[in-house]
Amino acid sequence: MSGRAGGGGGPRLNPLRVRRMDAKEIRQLFRDPKTKRIIFAAPIIQLLAFGYAVNTDVRNVATAVVDHDRTAESRALVDAFTASGYFRVVERSDRPADLAEALDRGRAVVALEIPAGYAADLKARRSPAVQLLADGTNSNTATVAQGYAGEIVQAYGARLAAAAGGRRSGVELRTRAWFNPSLESRVYNVPAVIGVIVLMMCLMLTALGIVREREVGTLEQLLVSPLSPAELILGKTIPVAGIAVLQITLVTTVALLWFGIPITGSVPTLFVAAVLFILAGLSVGLWISTISATQQEAFLSMYLFILPAIILSGFLYPVHTMPDGFRYLTWLNPLRHFLDVVRAVFLKSAGFADVWVSIAILLAMAVAGLSFATRRFRAAL
Amino acid sequence: MNPVEVEGLTRRFGDFTAVDGVTFRVRRGEIFGFLGPNGAGKTTTIKMLTGLLPPSEGTGRVAGLDVRAERDGIRERIGYMSQKFSLYADLTVHENIELFAGLYGVVGTRYEERRAWVLEMSELADAVDRLAGELPLGWKQRLALGCATLHEPSILFLDEPTSGVDPVARRRFWDLIAAMSEAGTTVFVSTHYMEEAEYCHRLALLNRGRLIALDTPRALRARTVDPIFRLETEDAPRAVQALVHAPGMVEAAMYGRDVHVTVENETTGVDTVRAALAGEGLSVASIERVEPSLEDVFTALVRAEGGAVVG
C-alpha cells in the first residue's frame, strides 16, 4: 500500500504514470488500423492533392479561335498565342456563334475573334481590335488568362511596329514575381500542407482519443486510479505532439526532395513555430473533448472549427483579399500565423527576426489555449 | 474506524433524487452486498464513494477519508471494477497489467510478484499476449478484477461485476471475492443476481434511492413476510391473471414454470387459492408452503415501499 496522503494542492505529476500512459497511447494509436490510416494516409493524400491536383497555375488554357481575316498576319497572332504555352487552340471556326457555344459547353475557357480586315488595318496603321472572350465562372483563370492575352497582343503589336520601322511605345510594363519567380502554385501550397495536417492531427487524435475512452468506459477506470488530470492530459497529448512533429518532418522532406521546393529560411525558426502551433492545436482538441459526449459529436465540432480555420488562414485564398471583418478575424486563427511563418521560411528566406511577431502571437495562443483547455478539462472530469 | 461510513448521502440530478439520504457502515473485511432493481441508486452511490461523482448532500468516508475533499487519497486505497468491461480491449493482457501497475505505482520486485499473482488468480498465464478484447467475458472479468487489485487495495468496489457472465464463471468469480475477503480486503459489491446475494456477509437493499433494509442474508430471510405458496398448474400465466385480482391475495408471480402466490392468511390461504383457480376452470396439480427466498423478501420489501421505479 502506498502511504502517500492525498488531497494536496497543485497538479501532481508522476513521471512513471505519464510514461505508462504515453506508452499505452502510442501502442493504441499504431495498433488501430483506422488511426494508422489517418496518421499516414492523410499527409500523403494532401501532398498529392496540393502538389498535383490543386493547380491554380494558368497553362494550356483551352482556346477557341475564329479568324475572319485569314491572312498571314492573323495566323501569326494566333501562333503568338500558342507559342506562349499559356494557350492551346482546341477549335477553329469562322462562325462567331461557334465561339459562344464552345464557351457555353465548356469546351473552351477563352475565345479569340480576329475581325476581317485585321491585316489591312495593321498595314494602314489603324489599330485593329481583336476580341477576347473569357469564361468568367472561374474568375481566377479568366483574370490571369486575360492578362496573358493582353501581354501577348501588345508584344506582338510592338514587334510588328518595330519591323515596320516605327518607334516602340515609350512605356513598357514588365512584371516579375518575387519569391516564387515561376509563379507555381505548388511552391505556395505544398509547404502550407504542413499546417493543415498538423491541425487535423492535433484535433482529431486528441479529441477522438479522449472521447472514445469516455464512450467505452476506460476513462472512468483511469479516473478512479491515482492518475491526476495533468498526468492524463500529458499522457494523451505528448504522443500526439510527437506524431505531429514526425509529420512535419515527413511533409518537409517530401516538399524538399520530391517537389523540389527549397527551404531558404531558418529551419529552427520553423520548428519553434511548429511546436507552439501544435500546442495551440492540442488545446483546441482538448477543449473539443470536453464538449463532446460521443465521437460523432467530436467529429462534427472538429469540422466546425477546422473549415473556417482553413478558409481564414490564407491556405487557399489570400488573407489580403478578404473583407475587413474577416481579415481581422484571421488574427485569431493560429493556422494563419503558422502559415505566415511556414511560407516566409520556405519562400522568403526568413529567420527568427522576420517572423517574430507571428511567433509571439502563436506563443500567446498556446499559453492561453492550454490554460483554458486544461481548466475546462479538469472541470469536465 | 470502519472502511466505509456513509451518513445521509444524497445525490440529485435536477429534480430527480437518485440517492436519497442513505446511511450505513461497512465493516473491515466483510463482503457488503448492495442490492436493488435498476435505477435504485446502486451505481450512483458507488460513484460517490469512489470520487467519480460529488454528493449533493451528506457525508461519505472511505478508508477514513472524505469523499469530497480527499479523493486523491481514496483513489490510492481502493480498487474499482465497473459493470462495463473497462480495460483496454486493444491492449494485451500483459499491457493492461503493466499500465495499471504503473498508474498505481506498483514497480520493481513488487510488480513482478503482483503480476504473477494476477496471472495465477485469473488463470490467464497462457494468454498474456492476447488482446484483452478477444478474451471470453468471464476471463475479461477476472482480468479486470486482477487489474483492480494489483495495488492490494484495502477496499474493493465492484459495480455489478458479473453482469452477463455465465453461471460457472460467476461462481469462480465469487470464490475469488471470498478469498480476498478472507485475506482482509473489504468488498463492496452491487448485484442484481439474487443467488449472488447469498455470498455476502451483509446486504443493503436499495429501492428508489433509499435504503430499505440492511442485515445478514439469514436475518433478512427470517423476517416475517406473508406466507408464500408454490403451486403447479397447467397454465401458469392464466393462473397468475386469476390470482392477482382475487381477494385475500397479496401477490402472484411466475416462478419458473410454477406460480408463487403470497396470501394474507396462511390457514385459509390454500382454500382461497383453490377457489380462485376453480373459478377460472384451472386445476391445481400441487400446492405447498415454501420458505421465502431472498428474492421473495426483497420483493415484499419493495412492495411495502410502494414498488420499484422500473419493472
Characteristic key phrases:
heterodimer, A: 381 residues, alpha/beta, abc type-2 transporter like fold, 2 domains, 4-stranded mixed β-sheet, 65% helix, disordered N terminus, B: 311 residues, Rossmann fold, Alpha-Beta Plaits, 6-stranded mixed β-sheet, 4-stranded antiparallel β-sheet, 11 helices
Q: What's the N-to-C terminus distance of chain A?
A: 26 Å
Count of all domains of chain A: 2
Largest sheet of chain B: 6 strands, mixed
Secondary-structure element series of chain A: HHEHEHEHEHHHHHHHHH
Query: Which bin fits the share of residues in helices of chain A?
Result: 55-70%
CATH architectural label of the largest domain in chain B: 3-Layer(aba) Sandwich
Number of helices of chain A: 14
Helix percent of chain B reads: 25-40%
Description:
The complex is a heterodimer of chains A (381) and B (311). Chain A has 381 residues and is α/β, with parallel strands linked by helices. In chain A, strands 2-1-3-4 form a 4-stranded mixed sheet, sandwiched between helices. Chain A is elongated and about 95 Å long. Chain A has 14 helices and 4 strands. The two termini of chain A are 26 Å apart. Chain B has a 6-stranded mixed sheet with strand order 6-7-8-3-9-10, sandwiched between helices. In chain B, strands 2-1-4-5 form a 4-stranded antiparallel sheet, covered by helices on one side. The radius of gyration of chain B is 23 Å and the shape is globular. The two termini of chain B are 38 Å apart.
Summarize the structure.
The complex is a heterodimer of chains A (381) and B (311). Chain A has 381 residues and is α/β, with parallel strands linked by helices. Chain A contains 14 helices and four strands.
Protein topology:
The complex is a heterodimer of chains A (381) and B (311).
Chain A (H helix, E strand, L loop, with lengths): L14 H17 L1 H21 L7 E7 L4 H12 L3 E7 L2 H9 L5 E5 L3 H6 L7 E4 L4 H25 L21 H32 L1 H6 L5 H29 L9 H25 L3 H17 L12 H6 L4 H14 L4 H29 L1
Parallel strand pairs in A: 1-2, 1-3
Antiparallel strand pairs in A: 3-4
Helix pairs in contact in A: 1-9, 2-7, 2-9, 7-9, 7-10, 7-11, 7-13, 9-10, 10-11, 10-13, 10-14, 13-14
Chain B lengths: L3 E10 L2 E11 L4 E5 L6 H8 L7 E6 L2 E2 L4 H7 E4 L11 H11 L4 H15 L14 H13 L5 E5 L7 H16 L3 E6 L2 H4 L4 E6 L2 E6 L1 H5 L6 E6 L2 H9 L4 E7 L2 E6 L2 H14 L4 E7 L3 H11 L7
Parallel strand pairs in B: 3-8, 3-9, 6-7, 7-8
Antiparallel strand pairs in B: 1-2, 1-4, 4-5, 9-10, 11-13, 11-14, 12-13
Helix pairs in contact in B: 3-5, 4-5
